[in-house]
Design brief:
By secondary structure, this protein is α/β, with parallel strands linked by helices. It has three domains: 3-82, Winged helix-like DNA-binding domain superfamily/Winged helix DNA-binding domain (Arc Repressor Mutant, subunit A, Orthogonal Bundle); 88-160 and 268-283, Periplasmic binding protein-like II (D-Maltodextrin-Binding Protein, domain 2), CATH 3.40.190.10; 165-264, Periplasmic binding protein-like II (D-Maltodextrin-Binding Protein, domain 2). 39% of the residues lie in helices and 23% in strands. It has nine helices and twelve strands. The strands form four sheets. It has a five-stranded mixed β-sheet with strand order 4-3-5-12-6, sandwiched between helices. α1 crosses α2 and α1 (3-15) crosses α3 (29-43). The model has no long low-confidence stretch (mean pLDDT 91).
Length: 287
């Protein structure tokens, strides 16, 4: 079995059509068919069910496709990293992040890295917390920014920011920072919160604020986007609670009251995969 067999298999598995796969690979269709047959013979099983006009993956083929794609991604990453080392740290970091990380953490990181390594390029993808963990485990990103208390091995984390929470109200709401005492004043109001799937641990942090106030909130809507929350609040659909850092950089018809009396905090963390670690991360002080 050679590397070309894996590349050929991955292309056919994606296209599910030998002619189209052959065109993508710039080889003759009969030659591609022979290569796939050789691979199947070496494995001692069928990877495809052949029909007149198309092919389908067998159960073994579907599993093999997943693992081959992982192998090829790892290989591409290794080749990129070798070139980075040889070229004096030119290359890219693939970064996943939740919205609040873009307020300070990511711009600060990019400015710091750019000063020392101006040839490193960042590829940024906004993703929720579970999506980032899956992408790290699959080798699709190098670094994530999450609000989670725990991550599964082989992932590792570093806390960047411990943040307070802030109450979000419409601009004209009668409760102000001067007359606000505690959340009990607002127990009859509906609330708009981040989806629990966004981060279960973050959601529990927010729920503990209500527990301390002695009531369960009336949840009117939920979302995973801060700007959506602010638009709903400004339109009168309810109030919200967000990390205080999210009070920066928005110009909407809402106001914020920081819940400084509460001991509850939320942490923004960097997360990476120790088993698929881009060597650039150590150069920029991660890990």
């Amino acid at each position: 079995m050679e590397l070309r067999h894996l590349r050929y298999f991955a292309t056919v598995a994606e296209e599910l059509h030998f002619r189209k796969a052959a065109e993508r690979l710039f080889i003759a269709q009969p030659g591609l068919s022979r290569q796939i047959r050789q691979l199947e013979q070496e494995l001692g099983l069928e990877l495809f069910v052949r029909h007149n006009r198309k092919v389908e993956l067998t159960a073994a083929g579907r599993y093999f496709q997943q693992r081959v794609n992982e192998i090829l991604r790892d290989l591409e990453g290794a080749i990129t990293n070798v070139k980075l080392i040889a070229d004096g740290l030119r290359g890219e970091l693939r970064v996943g992040y939740i919205g609040s990380a873009m307020q300070r953490a990511i711009p600060d990181l990019m400015l710091s890295v750019n000063r020392d390594y101006p040839d490193i390029r960042f590829v940024l993808r906004e993703m929720d917390n579970p999506q980032q963990l899956e992408a790290l485990l699959q080798g699709e990103i190098d670094l994530g920014f999450v609000r989670m208390e725990r991550v599964p091995p082989p992932l590792a984390t570093k806390t960047l920011l411990e943040d307070t929470f802030s109450l979000v109200l419409p601009e004209q709401h009668p409760v102000t920072s001067e007359n606000f005492k505690d959340l009990k004043q607002l127990k009859e109001e509906p609330f708009i919160l981040f989806e629990p799937s966004y981060s279960e641990s973050y959601y529990q942090n927010v729920m503990r604020l209500f527990d301390a106030a002695g009531f369960s909130p009336k949840l009117s809507h939920s979302t995973v986007n801060a700007s959506s929350i602010y638009r709903l609040v400004s339109a009168g659909f309810g109030l919200s609670i967000v990390p205080t850092v999210l009070s920066e950089g928005y110009d909407m018809r809402v106001k914020f009251i920081e819940l400084t009396a509460s001991a509850e905090r939320t942490s923004l963390r960097m997360v990476w995969n120790e088993e698929r670690k881009n060597p650039l991360l150590e150069k920029i002080g991660v890990g």
